Amino acid sequence: MKVLVTGAAGFIGMHVCERLLARGDEVVGIDNFNDYYEVELKEARAMRLAVLPGFRGLRLDIADRDAMAELFATEKFDTVVHLAAQAGVRYSLKNPHAYADSNLLGFVNVLEGCRHNAVKHLVYASSSSVYGGNTKMPFSEHDNVDHPVSLYAATKKANELMAHTYSHLYGMPTTGLRFFTVYGPWGRPDMAPFLFIRAILAGKPINVFNHGKMQRDFTYIDDIVEGVVRVLDKPPAANPGFDKAEPDPAGSWAPYRVCNIGNSQPVELMEFIGAFETALGVTAQKNFLPMQDGDVPATYADVRALTALTGFAPTISVPEGIARFVDWYRTYYGV
Q1: DSSP tag of 104
Q2: Rg of the chain over CA atoms, in angstroms?
Q3: Which parts of the chain are beta strand (E)?
Q4: In whole angstroms, what is the distance from residue 250 CA to residue 156 CA?
Q5: pTM
Q6: What CA–CA distance (Å, rounded) separates 106 from 165?
Q7: Which stretch of DSSP H or E encloses residue 156?
Q8: 164-217 pLDDT, tens per residue?
Q9: Which of 140, 192, 296, 334 gives 20 to 30 Å between its CA and that of 252?
């Protein structure tokens, strides 16, 4: 297939591109290389992709309506994996307009490109953040998600609603993937694994929010990528038997679905930190702090729908994943 991957110089984007190229797809990757976190890491990811046969990279902002329309019209993609977004829960409290530009305006441009150019399947990044204030565990796609607790989460919920509209109006197959706390080599420096390893190796204390009383469904990047690619190959079909009197949020009468993608094995934050201490052979200094605004105490993915759809479920444990991440970090940064 000819696949567009947006956010190709991002953490998940780079790995998805590599996986698609490895199986023989032609991949066009776009990224705007913004400075939300260190651009050097994005450039290094892009350089890693640039040498692979079948890949072309373009510097392009999804919020640029004309450039996106031209890209879709020229390239005629078979499928799209849309991963570009302004990420981060906490940053949305400081710079809300960045989320409107990228996650809302940018997503409309992707939807319009797919609509007007007969794209066979749009797979896009949603987030476990859409579960917001929900406390029922594990988080299920069949549950209502109308109570976000951050603007980032609200934009991801909006993406799901926007995708459904296009699936209904234009018969366009869309799948939203709710990612659960992805980590691993080439990860994002603003996320906990990077923050922890940098502080520990520098002999500085790590910040432990909610006094360590948190759980996260930490999911290793290889598991995420395998799920993304398998889902891409299975576009949703319309369900004429959909019950509009008792609607299921996970499906529709239109060719639309949302799907959790996570490890389905929530880990206590202190256990996660312990995996770093074991891998590094160092006991971390800990600065215990209250919960941050926009955060939630626990995440836990119900992945039965993903497994039923693709035959795949994540397998890499946190100790194994952290050991791989630490090896990569030491090699990449020479520490």
Answers
A1: I
A2: 19
A3: 2-6, 26-31, 55-59, 79-82, 121-127, 174-179, 182-183, 206-208, 215-216, 219-220, 256-261, 267-268, 286-288
A4: 15
A5: 0.95
A6: 16
A7: helix 151-170
A8: 999 999 999 999 999 999 999 999 999 999 999 999 999 999 999 988 888 999
A9: 296
